[in-house]
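Appendix B: complex inputs.
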Amino acid sequence: MTPAGLLPVVIAGSLFVWFAQMVPVIASGDTLRFVWEWVPSLGVNVSFYIDGLSLTFALLITGIGALVMLYSARYLAGHIHQARFSLFLTSFMLAMIGLVISDNLLALFVFWELTTITSYLLIGFSHDTAKARRSALQALMMTGIGGLALLAGVILIGTTAGTFEMSEINAMPGVLTESVMYLPIVLLVLAGAFTKSAQMPFHFWLPNAMAAPTPVSAYLHSATMVKAGVYLMARTHPSLSGTDLWLWALTIAGAVTMVFASVMALRQTDLKMALAYTTLMALGALTLLLGNNSSYTITAAATFLIVHSLYKAALFLVVGILDAQTGTREAGKLFGMARAMPVTAAAAGVAALSMAGFPPFLGFIAKELSYAGAIAVDSEPFFVAGAFLIASALMVAIAGIVAFRPFWSKSGAPIAGVKEAPWPMLVGPVVLATLGAFFGIFPQTLATMLVNPTVASIIGDAEPAKELKLWAGVNLPLFLSIATFALGFAIYAATNKLRAALINLTERSPKFDNGWDNLMAGIASGSKALTRVIQTGVLYHYMVATFGTALAALAVTLFLRSTGTPALDFPQVELWDWLVFLLVLSGSILVLVTNSRITALAGLGVVGISLAMVFIFYSAPDVAITQLLVETLVVVLFAAAALKLPSLSVEPLRKRWLDAFIASGLGVVTTIILLKVTAGPVDRELTTFFETASYPQAFGQNIVNVILVDFRALDTFGEIAVVLIAAIGIFAMLKSKPEEEKR
Amino acid sequence: MNSVILRAGARLQVVLLLVFSAYMMLRGHNAPGGGFIGGLIAATGFVVYAIASGTADARKALRFDPNDIAGAGLGIALIAGLMAVFWGDALFTGQWLFIGATETEKGLPLSTVLIFDIGVYLVVLGSVLSITFALEEAV
Amino acid sequence: MNLFLLNLLLAVIWASLWGSLTLFQLVAGFVVGFVTLWIAQPLLGGPNGYYLRAYRIVRLALYFIYDLCVSSIRVAYDVLTPTDYSNPKILEMPLDVQSDIEILLVTNLISLTPGTLSLDVTPDRKTLIVHAMFADDPDAVIASLKNGMERMVKEVFEA
Amino acid sequence: MSWYLTLPLAIPFVTAVVAYLLRSNPVGAWVSIIGSGLGLLASIALMVVVLDAGVVVGQMGNWPAPFGITLVADLLSAVMVLITAITGFAVAIYALGDITERQAKLGYHALFQLLLAGVTGAFMTGDLFNLYVWFEVMLIASFGLLILNGGKEQIDGGVKYVALNLISTILFLTGIGLLYGMTGTLNFADLALKVEDIENQGLLTVVAMMFMVAFGVKAAVFPLFFWLPAAYHTPSFSVSAVFAGLLTKVGVYALIRMFTLVFDHDIGFTHTVLLWVACLTMVIGVLGAAAQSDFRKILSFHIISQIGYMVLGLALMTPLALAGAVFYLVHHIIVKANLFLIAGIAKRLTGGTEVYRIGGLYKSAPFLAILFLIPAFSLAGFPPLSGFWAKYIIVKASLDVEMWFVAFIALAVGLMTIYSMTKIWAEAFWKPHPDGLDPKLQNLEHKWAQLLPVAGLAALTIFIGLNPEPFVQFAERTTVQLLDPTAYITTVLGEM
Amino acid sequence: MINVIIGIFLLLGGFFALVAAIGVLRLPDVLTRMHASTKAGVLGSSLILIGGAIYLAETEITARVIATIIFLMLTAPIGAHMIGRASVRDLKYKHNKIRND
Amino acid sequence: MTSAAFLDLAIYASFVMVMLSLAIAFIRLAKGPTLADRVVALDMMTVSIIAVCGVVLVGTGEPALLDVALVLALVGFLATVALARFAERRDARENGEHQ
Amino acid sequence: MEQLLSILIGILVASAVYLMLSRNLLRFLFGLILLSNAANMTIFVAGRLTPGAPPLVPDGLDEPAHVVANALPQALVLTAIVIGFGLFAFALILAFRAYQSLGTLNTDEMRVAEPKEPQ
Ligand code: NA
Ligand code: NA
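Resulting structure:
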C-alpha cells in the first residue's frame, strides 16, 4: 500500500482520537466553542461549537473515515489516480467535519458547499464513463439547488436573528418561529436538507451516485454526506421545530421516503443498489423522527443515526469486498460464499442482524425506540408506526438478501476460486459490525457517551433522553418487533415473486430519473431556442434592437418624465440659413434615394460642405476648415476603396416600415430634446474663463486652439492616439494577406 | 495614374502644401490653424502625389515610413506633455520661453505647447498617409 | 542653383504669408523652405534662370488675366443667351514645351482662356488634347493657342 | 503633485510608443511586459495613496477645475486602475506564448498598451468629454486588436462589434452635447452640482437615459449586448482575455459613476429601469451560455449574465448592494480574464475550443485542471472563492430590501452558471479526448509564460476568497464615497 | 468711393459665380459645362476675394488673397483636366471621331 | 444712396447670387447624368464656397474666413481628383453608376 | 437658428439611422457619416450660436472686446470630428476587407463568426 493510500488513514485516525478525547467533557454536559473572526463586516466567523450532536457526527465521520480510507488504500491500490482519490476523500472528510462543528451558519454553508464539490469530484471519479459524469452532475445540481436555497435561508435567519451563530440563535427561543420570515426560512432550510439527504422527491440522485467507487458510497452515501441534511435539521431543530409546518413537512417527507425507499430496495438485484435504497429509507426515518420534539423520538433518532452508520458502512464495504473478490454484485449470482470468505461472512452476518434489528444488537434497541417514538409522535401515531412497521420488515428481508443469501444460501453454486479479502479491507466491516454488537450489549456506554448529549443538544436538558436497554419489558414496541420479524421473513421467502411484481410495476410507472434527463434536455433545447431568437447572428436584428431600445428609452422617458412643449418661432433665421437647411436636406435625400455610390458620396459631400458653411456663418473657422479637410479625405478614401467594392445593390422593394419608423422616431425625439435643451441660454462660465485666460495666461489668441493644446490638451492627446491607433489597425487589416486568413 | 499634367501639378502641390501646412500649424495658436489642420494639409499634398505618381514614389518622397512618423509624433506629443515635470508642474502644463523678449516685443515664443502641436501635426500626417498609402496599395 | 532660387521664392512666399517682410520672417521662411525642399527634393526638376524671366512672367500674367476675363464674359454670354453649341470638338495640339512646369502652365492657362479646355497630355508628352467649344476651324484654334499661350510660356522658360 | 495619478496613465502610453517603434523587433514583447510591470507598480502606489487620502486629484495643465481636465482617483477609480494593471501584466506575459511574430509586427503590443491606457484613462478622468475620448482610444484599440489576425471570423465578428459600438459611441457623444447644453460644464463634480439647478429635471432624466443606453451597449446589458457574443470568441486569446476582463467593466464603471454622482435625481425611475435590465441581463446571459458548446462562447455569454449582477448592485443603490457591485467588478475581472487565458492553453493542447470535440485535460494536464477549477468554481459562486462573496453580498442586499424575486433570479442564475462550468469541466477535462489525444502540458511552447499568469490570477482568486475581509471593507468604503460624493466634489473643485 | 469699388467687385464676382453655376446646369454636355465652372467660377470667386482684400486693406490679408487665387488657378484646371480624362473615356466615340478627322 | 448703403446692398446681392450658384450646382449634382457631371458640380460647389467665404469676410470683416477659402482652394481639387480617377477606372460592368 | 438646426439634426439622424438599418455595409457607412455629423452639430448647437464673431483675441487686447462665439463647443466638435474620422476610416477599411474575405457587403450573409446551426 502506498503512502498516498495510508496518509489519509493517519489523518482520519488522529482526528478521531482528538475528538474522542473530548467525549468525557461533552458527556459531562459541557460544550466547547472556538471563535475566529473571518469576515466580521459580513458577520462571518469561523466558530467551532462542539456539543453532543456535533461530536457524535465528528466521531462517525473520522472513525468510519479512517476505516473506509484504510479499506480504499487497498481497494484502489495501483490505480493511477489513487493520489487524487485520497486527496478528494480527505478534503471531503475535512469539509464534513467543518460542517458539523461550525457554529456560524455561513461557515457551515461554506463547508456544506465544499462537501458538494468534493463529492462531485468523487462521484465522477471514474470520469471516463459518461454514466459517472452524468451522476456527478446530477448530484452536484441537486445538492447545488438545495445549497442555494439554504444560502437564502441562512441569510434570512441571519437578518432575522441578527447573528449567524447557531448557538446564540438556539438560545433565543421563538426568535425564528415567531418572525414573519419563519415560513420562507423553514422552506429554504428544508430544501437544503432534503436535497442533501435525498428525501422524496429529490431522492433520485443518490442511487445514481452509486457510480462512485464502493468506498465512496460507503462513506459519503451512507455514513456522512447524506446525513448532513439530517444534521442540519437536528442543528436547527431547537429554533425551527415545534410548529405544525415543521412537524408535517418532516413527517410526510420522511414517511413517504421511508416506505418508497424500502420497497425500491426490495426491487434491486444489485446488492449495492439495494443498500443505497435502504440508506434512503434510513434517512427518511431520521427525517420523520426529527419532525417531533418528544424525548422518545429524538432519542430514537440519535440512536438510529449511530447504528445505521455502523451497519450500513459495514455492509457497503462487504458488498465492495464481494464485488472485488467475485467480480459481481448481482443477488442472483452469489450463493454460499461463507466457506470461501468466512471473515467477511461473519462481519456481514453481524451487521445484517443489527440492520434487521435482532437482539442483542444495537439495531434492535434503535428499532424499539423508533416504535416507541412512532407511538409518541404528535402527528398520526398510527400511520407513522405503520410506516415504520413496513419499512423495518423490509429491512429484515433486505438484510437477508444482502448478508445471508450470498454467504449461506444453498440455492445456488458458490463461485469457485474466490479468496478471502486482504486484511485492510476486512478491518472496516469487522470493527463496525463488532461495535454494533458491543453497543447492543452495553447500550449504556453509548447512551452516556453520545446519545444523551446528542439528545440534549437537540431538545435541551428539560426532558432527559430515554434510556437505551435491550429489555424494555413487554410493551407495544415489542409486539411490533415480533410482527416485524414475521412479516420480514414472509417477504424474504417471497422475495423473487415480489421483486418480479415490483419490477414490472416500476417499469410502467414514470421514473424520476427520466424526468431529470428530460429536464436537462429541456434546459439545453430551451436555451438554444431562446438564443436562436435573441443572438440571431444577423447584424440587422442587432441594429434594430439597439436603435429600437434607444428610441424606446428616450421616447418613453420624454413622455413620462419631461415637461413642457418646445416653442417653434424661428427668430432671426436668415435667408441663407434656410438655404443651408435646404442643401443639407436635399443632400441627405440624395444619399437616401440613390443607388449610385458616387451620387451618394456627392450627396454626403454636399451635406458636409453645407455644415461647413454653418460653421463659417456661426464663427467657427477652425471647425469649418477641419470639417472640409476631413470631408475631402473621406471622399478620397471612399473613392479609392470603392474601386474594389461592388456598386450599391439596388434597394430591394422590401417594405421597410419598421426601419422607417425607428429612424424617423429617433429623428423626432432628437429634435424635441434639442429644442428643449436650447430653449434657454447656456451657462458660459467655462467659456468666459477661457476667453479671459487664453492670451494672458496661455499666450494664445485663437481660443479654440488654446483649448485644444493647453486647457484640454489631454483630450487632444487622446484624440491623436485614436488617429494613430486607427492607422495601425487599418494598416494591419490591409496588410494581412488572404492566405493568412486560413487560421 | 498616367497623367502628365497631374504629375506635374502634384509636385508643385507637395511643395506649396508643405510650406502652407507648416504655416498653418505655427500660426495656429493665434489664428485658425494648428497641428491637426496643418497635418491634414501636408497629408493632402502627398495624397495627391500618391494618386498622381503611385505610392512607391510617394513613399520615396516621404522618406520615412508614415507609421513611424505617426508613432514618433505621438511620442513627441507625449514628451511635450511630460516635460512639465522638469518644471515640477502637472502634466500638459504649458512651458513658455520667449526668445529675444523685450518690454515692447514679446519675442519669438517657444513652448511645450508648440512641441505638442508639432506632435499632433506628425501623428495626423503619418496616420493619414499610412492609411491612404496602404489603401492605394490594396486597390 | 535653381533650387536656391526656388528656396528664396519660398522664403518670400513665407514672409508674405506672415504678412510681414521682416528679416526674421525671411530667414524663417528660408529655413522652412530649405526643409521643405529637402523633403521634396526627389520631386523637383525645378525652374531655371530665375531673374531673366521676371519681365516675361509679368507679361504672361497680364495676358492671361486679360484672357481669363474675356473668356469668362464669353461664357457668361453663351450661358445667358440661347446659343447653339453646334460644334464643340476635341482637338489634338502638338506640344513643343517639355518640362513639367511648362506643360503645367500651358495646360492650365489654356484651360482658363476662351473656348478651350485642356483635357489631357498624351503620355509621350507630344500632344495636348484640347476641348474647343467653337471649333469651326480647328487649325485656327490650335494655331492661336500655339502662338498665344505656348509661345509666351516657352519664352519665359527659354535659357 | 499628482504623480501617483499620472504615472499609471503615462506609462502605458510611453510603453506603447516604444513598443510601436520597436514593433519589428522581438524585444517588443518584453517592452510590453516591463511597461505593464511598471504600470502595475504605479497603480499599486496610487492605491496606497488613495487608501490614505480618500480622493486624489490632478489638474492637468495646472488649470483649475472645472476649466481644465481633472484626473481623479477615488477608491473606485483606484481599484479599477489597479485591477486593470494586474490583468494587463498577466496578459502581457501570456502574450509571449500566444502572439505570433506577424501580429507583433503589425503592432499588437502597441495596440495592447494603448488599450490599457484608454481603459486607465477612462477610470481616472473626472471629465465627461475626456471620458468620451478615452472610450474612443479603448474602442479603436479594441477594433485593431480584434481584427489583427485578419481571418474571416475576426472580420465578420469585427463588423458586428464595430457597427454596434459605433452607435453607442455616437449616442454618448450626443448625450455629452445635450448635457453640456443644459449645464455648460463637463467636469463630473461640477456637473453633480450644476444638474441640481436645472429646472426641467425631467429633461435631465431623458438625457440620463441616453447615457444609460450608450453605456448599456458598452457594458453589454440586455438588450444591447449582441456585439459581445458576436466577437469575443474570434480574436487571439490574450485579446479576448483582456476584452472579457476589462472592456465591459468600463461600461459598468461609467454607469456607476454617472448614476451615483450625476444622475441621482430620479432614482425611482432610472434605477428601476436598471433593475429590470439587470435581471433580464442575468437570465438571458446565462441561458445563452447554456446554449453554447464552445469554450469561449460559453464564457462570453457568462460575461453578460455577470454584468447583470453588477448592474443589479447599482440598481438597488443600497450601500451593501453597491459594495457588492464593486466587489463583483474586482472578482469578475480577475476570474473571467483567467478563464479566457485557460481556454487558450486548452486550445493549444487539445486543438479546439468546441468542448464536445476536445477532452482528456483532467487526465493528462491535472495542473491545468486545478487552475481551471479555481476560477470556474469561483465564477459559479462556490465558497470559499471570491465569487461566493460577490454573489452572497448581492443576494443579501436584495433580500435586505425584500426583493425576493430578484434574489431568486440571482441564485438561480448562479445555479445555471454551475451548469455551464461543469459542462466545460465534464467535456473538456473529464471526458477522454475523442481523437485519443493526450494533451500534456509538456507539449506547450512558452509553457511558463502561459501558466504563470494563470496561476497568479488563480492565486489571487483564492486569496480574495479566503481573506475577503479587507476587500469587503474596501468595497464598503468605496460605497460610502459613491453615495456621498461631497468629498469627491470638494476635492475636485477645491474647498468652496 | 472705396466702398463702391468693393461693391462692384463683389457684384461682379457673385455674377460670375452664378453664371458659372447656371452654365454647369444649362450647358449641353460635361465638357462644355467644365468650361463654365473652370473659367467663370474661378474668376467669380477671385473677384470676390479681391474685393475682400481691398476691404480689409492689410498686407497680410492681401498676400493671402493672392495666394488663394494662385492656388485656385493652379488647381481648378488640373481638376478639370482629370474630369476631362474621365469623361473622354465616357465619350470615347467622340474622341475616336476626332482622331479620325 | 450712400456708398456704404451701396456696399451693404452689394454684399447682400452677391451673397444671394453665390448661394444661388450653390443651389443650382447642386441641381446638376443631383441630376448627373454621368459621374463626371456630378464631379463637375461638386467642383463648382467648392468654388462657390470660396466665394461665400469672401462675401462673409466682407460682411463681417472677419479675416479668419480667408483661411477657410485658402484651405478650400488647396484641397478642394483633391476630392475632384479622387472622384475623377474613380470615374475613369470604373469598370464597364458598373454602368449602374450612370443613372 | 438653433431651432432650425435642431430640426436639421433630427433630419440627419433620421436619414442616418434609416441608412444604417439597411443591410448593406456601404449604406451603413453613409449613415455613419451623417450620424457623426449630426452628433457634432448637436454639440455645436448646444453651445448656442453667435454669427460673425470667431473666438479670437484681437491683437493688442487681452481678451475679446465684444461677445464672441462659444469656444469650448468648437474645440469639442473639432476633437469629435477627428475621432469620428478615425472611426469612419476604420469602419470603411473594415467593410473593404469584409468584402475581400467574405465576398459580400450584405450583412445578412455575414455568418462566419456566428454560423447558422444545423436545425
Ligand atoms: Na447630483
Ligand atoms: Na450627487
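The CA atoms of residues 212 and 255 of chain D lie 7 Å apart.
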